[in-house]
Amino acid sequence: MEKTVFEGGGTHERRLISWQPPPQDWVCLNTDGSVTHSPSSTAVGGIVRGNDGRFVRAFTMNLGGGSITRAELAGIVQGLKLAWELGARKVILQTDSLIEKTLIETASHHHPHFFAIAEIWRWLQLPWQVRIDHVFREGNYFADYLASIGHNYPIGVHVFDTTSSALA
Questions:
Q1: By CB atoms within 10 Å of each CB, which of 4, 43, 86, 139 scores lowest?
Q2: Name one GO molecular function term (predicted).
């Protein structure tokens, strides 16, 4: 996909925005949240891919109801849990939500979603390397897709071991 980027002086450049693989020995975890309002539903999705771009595992989770902040944070928690259980010890977590990335880095104990943020902090304290990056939505496409289909699943987590099961 191309996106127009405007710079000073009215000039612009077109550049391709797409998913980029992580460095050697790292995995990439993309997560996203989704909220619908009619009917009210909150879901999340995520995918773990290797440094060669190969599919490792994916998930979708129907949360029932809630805010987009709740969804984004729950997706990050579930994604970190999945990456840890897979044995990944070098993880680049990519989210298209700059708000949640900032919350994880700066939230106080008084934030309304502090308990979810604290759970993320607990995961980050484990003996592994996790880097949190903000990506454009276009680079987070598959996680966005998994979050959107989560509304159609029963409440709870649903893990996919193959791309065909995730796309079914």
A1: 4
A2: nucleic acid binding
Mean pLDDT, each 10-residue run in order, the chain (168 residues): 45 59 92 92 97 95 95 97 98 92 86 91 97 86 95 97 76
What is the Cα–Cα distance from 86 to 28, expressed in whole angstroms?
Answer: 12
In order of 38, 94, 159, the CA distances from 137 in angstroms are 23, 10, 22
Q: Which two tokens stand for residue 154?
A: 């029963």
In whole angstroms, give the CA distance from residue 145 to residue 33: 10
The two tokens of residue 31 are 């997560």
The residues spanned by each domain of the chain are 19-167
Order the strands of the 90-95 sheet from edge to edge.
Answer: 129-134, 90-95, 27-37, 40-49, 55-64, 156-160
Helix (H) or strand (E) holding 118: helix 114-124
